[in-house]
Design goal:
By secondary structure, the chain is α/β, with parallel strands linked by helices. Helix content is 38%, strand content 23%. The chain has a single domain, classed as Rossmann fold, CATH 3.40.50.300. Strand 1 and strand 2 form a beta hairpin. Helix 4 packs parallel to helix 6, helix 5 crosses helix 6 and helix 6 runs parallel beside helix 7. The protein is globular. The N terminus is likely disordered. The structure holds adenosine-5'-triphosphate. The site of adenosine-5'-triphosphate (ATP) has 13 residues, from strand 1, strand 2 and helix 3. It is found in: Cell membrane.
Length: 291
């Protein structure tokens, strides 16, 4: 079903508004509306169009992953939602507002943690809380930092510098920082890409734990290369075509019940079917016989 643009909503009469509210109640409100977005970059060789005419609605509380080959435009799409890229055509609406730049309603976590190395774990989160919440006391800010560090089991390390933490711990600090500013939308660009398989696996559980504690109200968009990760975490997986001018190849629904159990899920025939589907969408050679 097509969502309405802000202009269309403004021209609705009362009964239409009631109807659209009723529909929204059933389908859930759109947290992110990507409307016909094209992003081109100027380079010395001319203009390079990374993504073209992409439209996608992401509902409040949904977890959606972008997957595709290297260079297909996943980060470009993500950066357009975050406001770090400006669309050459089309627009992104986040939480009802046209995205014009980065904002506190959209928290971002990158693969490289992006913690300030000269600040302690505590200070890294405090700085973010301090610049996002102007009207609360210092005591309340300290409590917010403590609560979020406890949620990722890192309170006892709050005095350490990032350089003295493991990769998984750094990523937990980055996630705690993103949750501390309490954005409605969490954007994760290959957040676990640099972690070993065991740490990655426990980070998936940590992330879902935080999402659950927040009543599954945060919308999470994630870039990943990892099919298993995408299935375990997501409600939908958006597969992108190769660039230039990448488009959406297919959207795969992950209709697996939550809470999901890492050990059991892989034996679920529905999981295997989704896994196969994604594999076939992403890979065309499965053995040396295919060359
Ligand atoms: N600022 C920029 N200027 C010029 N070209 C860019 C810029 N940002 C991205 N590109 C190009 O756009 C294309 C898509 O890049 P993007 O980083 O979005 O891909 P990706 O799917 O996230 O890749 P990976 O999986 O390797 O991280 C690439 O060809 C890249 O070189």
């Amino acid at each position: 079903m097509k969502s309405l643009s802000l202009e269309e909503i403004q021209t609705l009469n009362d009964s239409e508004i009631e109807t659209s509210k009723a529909i929204e109640k059933i389908l859930g409100p759109s947290a992110i509306k990507i409307d016909n977005v094209t992003v081109s970059f100027k380079s010395k060789n001319g203009i390079y169009t990374a993504i073209k005419d992409i439209s996608l609605d992401i509902k409040k509380g949904e977890i959606v992953s972008f997957i595709g080959h290297s260079g297909c435009g996943k980060s470009t799409l993500m950066n357009t939602i975050s406001g770090m890229n400006t669309p050459s055509h089309g627009e992104v609406i986040a939480n009802g507002n046209v995205v014009k730049g980065p904002g506190p309603d959209r928290g971002i976590v990158f693969q490289n943690y992006s913690l300030l190395p000269w600040l302690t774990v505590f200070q890294n989160i405090y700085e973010a809380v301090d610049s996002s919440f102007k009207n609360i006391s210092k005591k309340e800010k300290i409590e917010m930092v403590e609560k979020n560090l406890k949620m990722v089991n890192l309170w006892e390390h709050h005095h350490k510098l990032p350089g003295h933490l493991s990769g998984g711990m750094k990523q937990r600090v980055a996630i705690a920082r993103a949750f501390a500013i309490n954005p409605k939308i969490l954007l994760l660009d290959e957040p676990f890409g640099a972690l070993d398989a065991l740490t990655k696996s426990s980070m998936h559980i940590e992330l879902l734990k935080l999402w659950n504690l927040d009543h599954r109200e945060k919308t999470i968009v994630m870039v990943t290369h990892d099919i298993e990760e995408a299935i375990f975490l997501s409600d939908r997986v958006v597969v992108l075509n190769n660039g230039p001018a990448s488009t959406i190849k297919e959207i795969v629904e992950v209709n697996l019940e939550r809470p999901r159990n890492k050990k059991d899920i892989v034996h679920d025939p529905k999981y295997m079917e989704i896994h196969d589907k994604l594999l076939n969408l992403l890979i065309d050679k499965f053995s040396i016989a295919d060359y």
